[in-house]
Amino acid sequence: MTRPTIKDRLDTDSAVADGTGREAEPFWRAKTLEQMDAEEWESLCDGCGRCCLVKLQDEDTEAIAYTDIGCKLLDDVGCRCRDYPNRQAQVPDCVRLTPQTVRAIDWLPPSCAYRLVEEGRDLYWWHHLVSGDRDTVHAAGVSVRGRVEAMEDDLPLEDYIEHMVRWPLRLPRGAMRRPADPARGRRTAAPPTVAARGTARR
Ligand code: SF4
Ligand code: SF4
Description:
The chain is an alpha/beta fold.
C-alpha cells in the first residue's frame, strides 16, 4: 500500500465538503499565515534554501544584498538546515519566521511561499504541496542547489562583498513556466556587516 504524502495528508485535513461534492481550497489558499497550525506552517517552506544564504547590509543605507555564500549550517545539496532544532543556538542571528517577521522583513525571495501567501498569491507549480514532489523545487532551478559558491566559515569577512549576487531575489524562468509533463505540476501563481538570515519556524 502506498503511504500518503504530506500533501495527501494536508489536503485531506483541510478539505471540507461544501455540499456539492467538491473539496474546499487547500490550506495555503484558505488560511492566513496566522491561521495555519504548526504542521501546515512547516510544510509551507519549499526547501529552496535561499533565505539561508548570507546577506550583507550596507551600514549607511541599511540596504540588504544577497551573497552566494551559505550559512555554516546549510546543506548546499539538500538545501536544508543541518541542525534545524538547534539552529539558533549555533547561529544566533538566524531569523525565526513568524507571520509578523514575514511582514516585517523585506529580503525574503519572491519565490518564498510565506511571502506569496502573505501577498495573497498562490504557490507555484514546483512547490511540493502542489507538485507532490520535494524535488521539483530543485528541478525548477529555484533552490540553491549547485549555486552556493562558498560557506561562510571558509571565507574571511572582507571577501564576502565579492560574492554579492542578485539571483536570490529573482525568479528563474523555469519557475514561471508550467512543465511540459502535466504530472509535474498543476497550478502556476501568476567591509560589510553580516545581516539577517531566514528560517521558517515560528
Ligand atoms: S523560508 Fe522561504 S525562502 Fe526560506 S527555504 Fe523556506 S520557502 Fe525558501
Ligand atoms: S535555518 Fe538558520 S541556521 Fe539553519 S542554515 Fe538556515 S540560516 Fe543557517
